[in-house]
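Hi Prof. W.,

I finally got the NAD(P)/FAD-dependent oxidoreductase prediction working! I wasn't sure whether to trim anything, so I left the full sequence exactly as given:
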Amino acid sequence: MTDYDLIVIGAGAVGENVADYAHKRGLSVAVVEAELVGGECSYWACMPSKALLRSGHAVAAAKRVDGATQAVTGRVDAAKVLARRNSFTSDYQDDSQVAWLESADIALIRGHARITGEKTIEVAGETHTAKAAVAVVTGSLHQLPDVPGLAAAGPWGTREGTSAQEVPESLLVIGGGVAGSELATAWASLGSTVTLVARHGLLGGMEPFAGELVADAMRELGIDVRTGVSPTRVDRDEHGLVTTTLDDGTTVVTSEVLAATGRKPHTADLGLESVGLTAGDWLEVDDTMLVQGTDWLYAVGDVNHRALLTHQGKYQARAAGEAIAARAQGRPVHAEPWGAHVATADHAAVPQVTFTDPEVASIGLTEDAARKQGVNVRAVEYDLGAVAGSALQADGYTGRAKMVVDEDRGVVVGVTFVGQDVAEMLHAATIAVVGEVPIDRLWHAVPAYPTMNEIWLRLLETYGRPE
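And this is what came out:
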């Protein structure tokens, strides 16, 4: 039996942050990992997917500037892109991540953890106990849609979609969410003939113009985007080709099929039933990430289903690590909104970038979501391509921006940008929303000219200056 103050189950980016922040406050910490230290984001999600996308974005951006476009004489070198992607995953080796744990004085336990009782886990037949807390940071898993024949056809999930070592001649992507849209864009830029099918439009839950502009750009890239349709049958033949039948009666034949239709909690085999919880469920937590009904079990990141984004999970991890240490040491826990030990931003201030081309960068509430919450809303939009900085960024720049304002409080509660290179503009909007900066004060935040950030002035002018 080995004792630690805190045991973290899952050594991905989120688990590493829980461990690090608790250890910095003086706790002894161990993390348990069944696969690679660094987790999903490092090897099968954030980093490799963006590496697959970046080269295509760079070439497309060059082609949009006269004088530069003449220098673009070939296609993206797919082999070089895949090699660069592999470099970002350290060729799927976790030596450097393990070295970081060692340097941070955090113990690593290899293997699959099962909770066997309060503050107790078992790994490979060995029992480990936590004096203060156990944190479940196991993330989420790809969920295969229930389509006849799909499972037997050996489909790609998001892992295969980010780690494949060869470009398929053709690819069908099922799902028009963030993962499906990004991976369709990536593989099309690498030379695959891509078809994307989505039950509704693209990027549901965002401002409607986001999905519309992304769909238009996908079609220009050569992707066959079909919305309002779903697969009813999938079959792979003896030659390896996949035939997908859609509910409109058409069929699509491709080399591979990728399902990107949702996630499920990675909690089915953790032994949660030993402490009165239901295996396979999302874990409900308070704002310090403490699992409801317990005083020792925490759930951080995707597994609590608050915001399935790595950066938001790491934000939760910082709060949880600090809260665990404070409680263990008998120090005050600041659990009030925006306190040091809570993840208040999860509720209405979550930033997200979809790395399609154009990019979609958003923070906070959409107009529809705000209205459904009963907020007295006024929203304004502006053509991002009409801003001088955008015109310099790309010839014929296409984009749009929207600002959602809570009229009763006079603060911005949501912002969405769609366009080339908007990702790096998002943090200013995040600060405006999280800081609840009054509209009349935003007039004094002068955007440098000529940059794309002048969109803020145009949105404010459209909204109207106070008298």
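The chain has a mean pLDDT of 97. Does that look reasonable to you?

Thanks,
D.
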